[in-house]
Amino acid sequence: MNLMSRYEVVGDWGTSRLRLFRVEQGRVTARHDGPGIGAAAGQAEAAFAAAIGPWLEEAAPTQIRLCGMAGARDGWVEAPYADCPADAATWRAAATRFAWRGVPVAIMAGLACTGANGAPDVMRGEETQIFGAMARDPALGQGRSLIVLPGTHNKWAVVQDGRVSSFRTMPTGELFALLRDRSTLGAQADRPDPAREAQGFAEGLARAQEGRPLSSLFAARTMRLRAGRPAEWAAGYLSGLLIGTEIAEVADMLEQADDIWLIGDGRLSTLYAEALGRRGLVAQALDGDACSLAGLGLSGHPHHPHGDPS
Amino acid sequence: MNLMSRYEVVGDWGTSRLRLFRVEQGRVTARHDGPGIGAAAGQAEAAFAAAIGPWLEEAAPTQIRLCGMAGARDGWVEAPYADCPADAATWRAAATRFAWRGVPVAIMAGLACTGANGAPDVMRGEETQIFGAMARDPALGQGRSLIVLPGTHNKWAVVQDGRVSSFRTMPTGELFALLRDRSTLGAQADRPDPAREAQGFAEGLARAQEGRPLSSLFAARTMRLRAGRPAEWAAGYLSGLLIGTEIAEVADMLEQADDIWLIGDGRLSTLYAEALGRRGLVAQALDGDACSLAGLGLSGHPHHPHGDPS
């Protein structure tokens, strides 16, 4: 084994996506994207070995660090949850460590909290992005910030003086996909029409302010039937109604926050930024991959071997 | 053709169910249940002929009256909507009439209204049950009543002095089915457990009072993961959360109503009656088939050739 082939593997293995990075001397030199942990159907170890197969042919990694649903009960090896409030050191110490083919593996802990209403809440993967964001930007570790992580199960996390003090999960992304693709309220458009979707989004956001989300859902259908709205409009309307409702439900968190940060997918973050903007709030957007890598221990900005850094 | 074979056919052809009744001398002497208009895939006429095939072999009916999605754009023949406020005479006059194989057919009109927020709303089939309920019970035609018709697309209709003045549709039933069967929030239980479902329903109803439906959805998952709730519990919780949210959204309608009536499926009506009961409200339940038949012009109580009348 020559020195140049020494590498570690870090990554986020979520419900719907696997993102692995090959890291050499602190820099990302390759990445592998694949299906989520659900697709592994209980064979996570074999799926992981297959995913890094080309790298393994050259040499074994020096270490492996993973976050996300890899640590869920149905994942690779179950990792614990660290209870909120949690700081980075407590969270890192809670990782599950074991050896795989002689290589040290760390699967990062998730976070758990109890809401003000007594209901439990959990996250796996987003905590790595949150701690990564704090590592990258010390401003986030001071005062009281609200971090929004849009996705299938959106997280709204309160960070205070370097600790994640609480968070709230809303399955808005999952609900939206069900309504758009599998309900009588969504409509299949012949081709995407961003302008009509944007109009629907704006109308959905406005409707959300009435505070009657269930009553407002059916308009996705009747506005097509009776008010001439095109099919493309409905997906935008449903998205605006749900995101607007979600933001109204976190009004207490918004009022108490010194600043607001968005971590994740660019397109979704843009929609949330727009919805927050309607309430006069400015959110700063952070790149999701960069935050994951920082949370997994890589300092600085990631190197993108294929494509421009964003 | 002898006198005894003279019969008419009335029925409700909805999205998911076809219910046809053979009526002789004002009494139901047979019924046919089949799939909804969606299953006919644009071949409604042929599907109808097949459904009443055994009766046709004997003789042609003297007339046919249908309500529901048979009159939708993708149904048999499109019927108009009567605009609210609408009384029974206006609504009956709006039916679409034509001849099929020489037999006079009437497809009843739907109802349309515009909500206080300017959004259009529509129903097809439920209006027949509402006008039928008024025909059966004159008390319903006086003062201001609120009629709840639980189903895939629940209707909350205000009836004043014999007219349907407005209504609101909530696709609660469709949303519940999506969440229970197709989301990560529902859970498949090995076998139904009514007691655990009832406990989940009660907890969901209580949670709905917090007024944060999106935030409360994820607990269907985390209460199983972290608080020992069994899989059976989750369906009850989702149902209670959605129905409780729905009832909170019609608080204005509840306050203004002199009385509340429930029309439809017995099991669903029981859940709505329980949820309304938590708010100190008493709802009177009416049989859905009996109301449909009365709305289609049959007086008195229907005769059930198979099974006890309910």
TrEMBL record, chains A, B:
Keyword Ribosomal protein found: no
Gene Ontology BP annotations: D-galactonate catabolic process
Keyword Kinase: yes
EC number(s) per entry: 2.7.1.58
GO MF annotations in UniProt: 2-dehydro-3-deoxygalactonokinase activity
InterPro entries reported in the protein's UniProt record: DGOK (IPR007729), DGOK_C (IPR042257), DGOK_N (IPR042258)
Taxonomic superkingdom: Bacteria
Keywords: Kinase, Transferase
Top EC class for this record: transferase
Protein name: 2-dehydro-3-deoxygalactonokinase
Lineage: Bacteria, Pseudomonadati, Pseudomonadota, Alphaproteobacteria, Sphingomonadales
